[in-house]
UniProtKB/TrEMBL annotation:
InterPro entries: ICL/PEPM, Isocitrate_lyase_ph_CS, Pyrv/PenolPyrv_kinase-like_dom, Pyrv_kinase-like_dom_sf. Pfam families: PEP_mutase. Keywords: Lyase. This is Carboxyvinyl-carboxyphosphonate phosphorylmutase. CDD domains: ICL_PEPM. One of its GO terms (molecular function) is oxo-acid-lyase activity. PANTHER family: CARBOXYVINYL-CARBOXYPHOSPHONATE PHOSPHORYLMUTASE, CHLOROPLASTIC, PHOSPHOENOLPYRUVATE CARBOXYLASE.
Amino acid sequence: MATTPARLRLRDLLDTRELVIAPGVFDGLSAHLTKRTGQTAAYMTGAGVAASGFGLPDIGLVTASEMAERARVLVDALGDVPLIADADTGYGGPMNVVRTMRSYDAAGVAAIQLEDQVFPKRCGHLPDKQVVDAAVFEQTLAAALDARPDENLLVVARTDARAPLGLDAAIERANRYAQAGADIIFVEAPQDAAEIERIAAEVDAPLLINLVLGGMTPIESAARLQDLGYAIAIHPGNLLAQASLAMLQHLCELNGTDIAAHLPSRPADFFNLVGMADWLKLDSTYAGKDASWA
C-alpha cells in the first residue's frame, strides 16, 4: 500500500517529541469514539480483540487473519487517526511474518508491533512468559523490515524478557532490536518507577510504554513520561474495562445478583471471564504428551 495520511501523521507526532497517548481500541465503536473525542492515536489491543471479538483470553488463540481483518475495521473507523497494531509474534517463522506484514500493510495500520515471546504467547502482564533467543527475533525483525513496502509503516519491537530473564537482559535486547532497525522499542512490564527510568536512560531509541490497569507496571503520569523521554504511552485496557464494568453492572441488576463475584482486579481475573482457566487446563493436558507418528 502507498503511504497514508495516518502514517505520515504518526511520524509527525513522533518528530515533535511530545508524548503520544494511544487508547486501546478493539472494535468499530471504540475506534469511532476514539476519533470523535479527538485522540491523537490509537492502539489495537490484542487482548481486547481476543476478548471482545472472539470471547478468548490473550494467550495466542487469535489468528493472523482474524487480527488483520480487525485492523482493517479499526483503520476504516479511525480515518486519519494513526493505528498502532499488535501483531503478537508475527504468527510463525519469517515467511509467516512476511505475510503478516503484508496483511497489516493492506489494512492500513500506521505501525505494527512484534514481540519476542515463544508462540503461543501470553498477555505481557500474565506470569510464566517465555522468550525466544534474541537472534531468532532479529530474524523476525529482518523479515518484517524487508517486507514492508512503505517506510512510513513503522515497526515496533517488543521484548518480554524482563519477567523471565531480568531487566538487564531486557535492556540488552531492546538495544539490539533498535540496532537491527526497529523504529520504536517496547520493553514490556517494567515493575517499578526505577525500572521505567532506567529503560528511558539506557535504551537508545524512541520508546513505547504499556500502562495496564492492575498490571505489573505502575501507572505513571503523562507529564512524568514526557520528562523521561518516552515517545508513546498505550492504555490498552481502559476502554474495555469500563465497557465490561457497565455490562456487568446492568446484567447483575437484571437478575439481582452480586457484581462483586465477577469484578476483575488484575489481567488474569479479566481473562478468566472469557475462559482462560479452561484453556490453560486444556493446554496442560496435552503439554506432557509425546506425539507419535505412524
